[in-house]
Amino acid sequence: MKTISFLFIIFSFINGAVTESVKVNLGFSVTLHTNTVIQSNDVIEWRFRKEPLAKVDRGSISVFNGSDGTFSDGLKINNQTGDLTVTDISIYTIGEYHLQITGEKSTTKSFSVSGLFGFTADVTSLSVMEGDSVSLDAGAPDNRNYDVIRWRFGNSPLAELDRKTKIISTHDDVHDERFTGRLELDNESGDLTIANITTDLSGLYEVIVDSNSGTHTIHQSYTVTVSEIDAVHWLVDHLNQDHKEIITEEKIQSTSATSDVSPTPVSLRLLQYFYSADVNRLMKTFRNESHAP
Fold first, then answer.
1. 8-state DSSP, 276
2. Rounded to the nearest 10 degrees, what angle do helices 265-274 and 231-238 cross at?
């Protein structure tokens, strides 16, 4: 699984107004920041091209999702900051976004969002076996546009990288001891690797990449499901091809009777026909490893 995201910040001046151009791979989410202190009487309006998109009027929120339902509930607006989040960027949601804040101090801003077609964030759900290593892509192309990459597990901070200073901070032993000794953060890409993963580490992982300018944030979520390894999978991983003893279904069933896991009939037959091993020795080792602290 490898997903690459590109975000380039380019400023252009059109009739005195600043337009910020953002290029992001399809499937990622983008938050456009107002960077303005919102007053209680301010009216915040977002438009996509020429169509009304979202509005905050004295705390009351209206979201329109486009005249033809283009955004399909893919919009989120913060009624405190006025920031707009566009989830799951697609070819239908790339284009010009316009912000207008009306109040004591009026503000206008434009964002040109373009999508990269070479890469998509279509692999956001991963299924692995316990004991595997899992790598999650931060989607950060270089450190010219942003330095700080943050990872979260559920609602808890997990790891953080400052690419400029090369300082890595992991919170594995502070917020969640289950991650102790399992985390590796690449100091260039910000990609996160979880080694020897266990079933209780299934859940939602999120990467948050803030632009250095503070005007944009890109983020992506990954759902990781970790399944228990059964006796047959474990046996296959530990088979010794030098053994001549043929595995029978009855032998595996009898030796796994005292184990907490049960092989399936289909996997038993496959194992019987294609492999040979000292089942008693392997099953004893399997039980010891399975119940080790």
1. B
2. 20
User: Residue 160 corresponds to which tokens in the numbers above?
Assistant: 């953080």
Annotate 210-264 with DSSP letters as a single string: E-TTSSEEEEEEEEEEEEPP-HHHHHHHH--TT--PBP-HHHHHHHTTTSS----
Residue 170 predicted with pLDDT over 60 = yes
Q: For the chain, give the number of residues.
A: 293
Q: What is the pLDDT of residue 11?
A: 39
Beta strands, E only, the chain? 10-14, 17-26, 29-32, 43-48, 51-57, 60-63, 75-77, 84-86, 95-102, 107-120, 125-129, 134-136, 148-153, 156-162, 167-170, 183-185, 192-194, 203-210, 216-227
Strands 75-77 and 17-26, sheet pairing: unpaired
| Domains of the chain and CATH, by start | 10-119 (2.60.40.10), 125-212+219-227 (2.60.40.10), 231-290 (no CATH)
> Model confidence at 234, in pLDDT bands (50, 70, 90)?
low
CA 27, distance to chain mean position in Å, is 11
Tens digits of residue pLDDT in 263-279: 554 455 445 444 444 45
Residue 206 has pLDDT above 60, yes or no: yes
Residue type, 214: G
pLDDT given for residue 249 in this prediction? 47
